């Protein structure tokens, strides 16, 4: 029996990843289970160190620890080192290697949607590990112009200094139009109750020419990003597709087993039906 896990705060218990992975493991004939662990900020180092001795077969890292967890790895993959955040840990004995499958999972989801970002412009909301992953892959895919908006302006400046682009303030977004082709929510907020301030800003956004809105969250009621897309009559995609593609690559890193992304998408649909 193999045990895989995901480390996060209390939000880890709300994710679909545990049930999704467990279903896929069963369908692929891998005897294993995937469990969530809620970790307090001061305990992150000890939680990661415990992976070495508990026989955990592989681990994911989610909000809010994707950046902090990188410092506890023995080594980082090239992509994770460039991005500065991890979401996957491969465990070989007592050796921990951190990977970032968020970025390439997002790329795969865009490709699956038939959307090319080459030569286009994009606005990213967020300054954490997810935002870094999106900025990295958009830059790699030759997006012409990238804007980053977030409450932490210092972290926003850090992203654009690393991957290129321009910091755009909430004040500017509220005051004037910003022509972009793609908007990506890489924050943890999608519901008005989670951030009335963000909701108020999004309601007033003027993004001339925007043709696609992506919210990396999923399963949120009253999703104001989705409502905005409906109001503008443009395409919307939530984070389930990205989750499926990054999960596929994560499982391959852990087990060397290549599973089609459709297996993860099918598992998600089964979860939706059962809930």
Can you summarize this structure?
With 275 residues, the chain is α/β, with parallel strands linked by helices.
The CATH topology of the largest domain corresponds to Rossmann fold
- CATH C-level label of the largest domain: Alpha Beta
The number of helical elements comes to 11
From the alpha-carbon coordinates, what is the Rg to the nearest angstrom? 18 Å
Percent of residues in β-strands: 15-25%
When the domains are counted, the total is 2
Structural class: alpha/beta
Terminal CA distance reads 27 Å
State the CATH superfamily name of the largest domain: NAD(P)-binding Rossmann-like Domain
Q: Which strands sit side by side, in order, in the main sheet?
A: 2-1-3-5-6-4
The biggest beta sheet is recorded as:
6 strands, mixed
Overall 3D form: globular
Mean pLDDT: 95
Low-confidence stretches: none
| CATH architecture type of the largest domain | 3-Layer(aba) Sandwich
Helix content: 40-55%
Q: What is the tally of beta strands?
A: 12
Order of helices and strands: EHEHEEHEEHEHEHEHEHEHEHH
């Amino acid at each position: 029996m193999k045990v895989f896990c995901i480390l996060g705060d209390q939000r880890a218990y709300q994710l679909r990843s545990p049930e999704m992975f467990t279903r896929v493991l069963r369908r692929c004939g891998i005897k294993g289970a995937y469990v969530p662990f809620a970790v307090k900020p001061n305990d992150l180092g000890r939680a990661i160190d415990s992976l070495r001795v508990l026989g955990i077969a592989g681990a994911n890292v989610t909000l809010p620890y994707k950046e902090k967890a990188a410092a506890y790895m023995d080594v980082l993959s090239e992509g994770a080192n460039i991005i500065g955040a991890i979401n996957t840990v491969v465990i070989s004995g007592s050796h921990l290697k951190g990977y970032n499958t968020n970025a390439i999972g997002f790329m795969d989801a865009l490709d699956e949607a038939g959307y090319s970002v080459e030569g286009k412009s994009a606005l990213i909301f967020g300054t954490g590990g997810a935002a870094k992953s999106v900025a990295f892959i958009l830059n790699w895919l030759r997006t012409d112009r990238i804007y980053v908006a977030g409450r932490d302006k210092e972290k926003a400046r850090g992203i654009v200094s690393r991957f290129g682009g321009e910091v755009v303030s909430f004040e500017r977004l509220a005051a004037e139009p910003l022509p972009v082709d793609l908007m990506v929510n890489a924050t943890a907020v999608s519901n008005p109750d989670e951030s009335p301030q963000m909701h108020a800003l999004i309601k007033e956004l003027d993004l001339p020419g925007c043709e696609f809105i992506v919210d990396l969250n999923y399963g949120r009621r009253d999703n104001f990003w989705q409502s905005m897309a409906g109001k503008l009559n443009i395409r919307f995609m939530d984070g389930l597709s990205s989750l499926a593609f990054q999960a596929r690559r994560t499982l391959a890193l852990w087990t060397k087993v290549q599973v089609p992304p459709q297996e993860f998408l099918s598992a998600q649909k089964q979860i939706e039906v059962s809930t």
